[in-house]
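Listing S7. Sequence submitted for prediction.
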Amino acid sequence: ARAHGRRLCWFHDESIATIFKKISVLCARCSALYLYLAVFRWGTYAPSMDGAVTQKVESFFSSHPARKYAKGQILIMPGEVSSEVFLLTEGKVKTYDVTYRGEEIIVNVFKAGAYFPMSHALGSVSENKYIFEAESDIVVRKAPAADVVKFLKEHPDVLMDLLYRVYIGTE
């Protein structure tokens, strides 16, 4: 589907297959730019089965001290600007918002091996909109966001693994 000569994104296009032939797609309706979708749909990437990516991530974060948080403890509050990225090594962390009626809306639940908040590290979000709370007793390591971005640029296999996990989680 096309609108004024531009392709529609995968939310607005009925013929999804045509989109996956491009690495970047600009949607004519919502102006969203979709990158890397083709990499996953073409089957050119599969998560590391030998644990090499996991070992690289753990090795990178191992130079930063482990910190423990108790269940219910808040790691990041709305409005905070995080200059660090957490690697969750044990437990679960939930990300949520609270409606004006006091209802909790869970956005994500991170398990061991996840690192967050990547939207801050990548510069796409200036301040946090959600509450990051320990859903169980947890252990994390924190690294400066700039160092994490540099690490991802130097290790494209780790970046691809991160993107793969993000896209799998949204399907």
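Caption to Listing S7: primary sequence and predicted structure tokens for the chain studied. The radius of gyration is 18 Å. Residues 10 and 145 are 30 Å apart (CA to CA).
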